Amino acid sequence: MRRRPRPFLAQRLFELAWSSPQVIAHRLSGADGAEQSRMVMEKVAAGIESWNAVATYAFALQRSLWRDLPRYRTWNSYFTGAPLLAWMNFMRGAERGLSDATAPFHRRAGANARRLASASRRRRKA
């Protein structure tokens, strides 16, 4: 089975911005207390999962930066542009880390939007 590529941060943020208002509208239109308490619990769980992803990735990124830093201590490495390439790799890694941080919110918001949309369709048919 082939693994799907990680979506870019901008794509995840756009999809999150698209599905979040739909979920909020569905949840606030119905006065179901269970749905509102579920919303709070999901936000807490997603926040913890996101914080864990950020911390893990930040430590790995910092470790890789400290590992690569001694390589660029000579004047020749500055003339070849090696520190710039190292910085670009570091920033690419930071973008991946932020993308991983938004993943729990993105996953839950998309699933809730699909679930609540199908529930409202079932209510309209009945």
Radius of gyration: 21 Å
Q: What class, by secondary structure content?
A: mainly alpha
Helix-residue proportion: over 70%
Q: Figure out the total of helices.
A: 4
Mean pLDDT: 79
**End-to-end separation:** 40 Å
Number of strands: 0
Q: How many strands, which pairing sense, and closed or not: the largest β-sheet?
A: none
The portion of residues forming beta strands comes to under 5%
User: Strand-and-helix sequence, N→C?
Assistant: HHHH
Description:
The chain has 126 residues and is mainly alpha-helical. It contains 4 helices and no strands. The longest helix has 44 residues, at 82-125. The chain starts with 8 loop residues before the first helix and ends with a helix.
SSE layout:
Blueprint: H1 9-29, H2 33-68, H3 75-79, H4 82-125
Helix pairs in contact: 1-4, 2-4
Structure summarized in a few sentences:
This protein is mainly α and 126 residues long. The chain has helices spanning 9-29, 33-68, 75-79, 82-125.
Keywords:
mainly alpha, elongated, 84% helix
